[in-house]
Amino acid sequence: MIQMSTLRKRVAIGNLIIGSGFPVRVESMLKTPITDVEACRKEIDSLAEEGCELLRVAFPNINCLPYLRDILQFSKVPIMADIHFDFKLALAALETGCMAIRINPGNMPKEGLVDIVNLARERKAVIRIGSNSGSLSNVQIRQSYGNKAKALFLAVKEQLQMLEDMGFEDIILSCKSTSITETVNANLLLSKHFPKYPLHIGITEAGVMPDGLVKSAAGMALLLTQGLGDTMRISLSAPAVEEVKAGYALLRSLGLRKKGVEIISCPTCGRKHLDVAKIVEDISPLLKGLPDGLIVAVMGCEVNGPREAKEADVGIAGTPNGIVIFKKGKVVEQIDRDDFSIEKVSAIIRELL
């Protein structure tokens, strides 16, 4: 088991606690413009069902305030308003009920920070200071002599010190780049110099699947295995629910979260008697509602069936005549090919658990 840091403070976004002693939180970002309220409602509902724990929402201009207010009223997921350029947008988001805001030190002017902090303190809201490689200022890059990881760190450091000077510490820190190396090095600097604050981690602009998923997992695993990361987003050019699914899958693979059912399956070879990929696709939605942490195996043949997947709580494996169903490596039922159906297998699996 990877040991997460126990030094970081805790911050509360409504009822959501982030920091020491709590699991790494999985978040995403609303991909629907907030002006389309009904589409936002559908997207938020689907994210809530998938287990999204925090949702960042772009708040680009003051004309969007009524829509943000509507979203705050019906959202089942805590909302963090994403603010750029204009400190008055941060004030408006806080005044309308946002319990968290993200400000970007690469484009947020110093003016207005006092007002933001005072209102956040009054509303017991959290501020995420989130630097991003795409919005670093020329000054920040010059100060770091072109070292973008250091520039990301310095951008957060400057704004953090201003907030600390005002006595405000309900803060989450974040440094993101599209480069794994830059992201990891920037977060190592944050952890070294400001170990008490929770970290939000992610690889920005990772891309489409599968490349973006691989890139995100590679970079974030390097941080998570070092105990760094209190909240995370896998950023993909894909529906937001895919980001949430991928987040939990990554945390399950590292032994950090057990949410949902884990399906393990063989890569298949010439011995296969099952269309493994198709069965995984078909059976996955039928396993919803089973206890978190269960492992279900789908194996192509009797060679890498019960034996190789004996750690699974339950599984199925192909045979020349059909399939076998096994529990903890022991075969408990056989089904002829003509009698096979996904619904029947799902029902048997539920009975065995």
Automatic annotation (TrEMBL):
Residues 262-345 form the IspG C-terminal domain. Transmembrane segments: none annotated. It catalyses: (2E)-4-hydroxy-3-methylbut-2-enyl diphosphate + oxidized [flavodoxin] + H2O + 2 H(+) = 2-C-methyl-D-erythritol 2,4-cyclic diphosphate + reduced [flavodoxin]. One of its GO terms (biological process) is terpenoid biosynthetic process. Binds 1 [4Fe-4S] cluster. PANTHER family: 4-HYDROXY-3-METHYLBUT-2-EN-1-YL DIPHOSPHATE SYNTHASE, 4-HYDROXY-3-METHYLBUT-2-EN-1-YL DIPHOSPHATE SYNTHASE (FERREDOXIN), CHLOROPLASTIC. Belongs to the IspG family. This is 4-hydroxy-3-methylbut-2-en-1-yl diphosphate synthase (flavodoxin). It comes from Acetomicrobium hydrogeniformans ATCC BAA-1850. The gene is ispG.
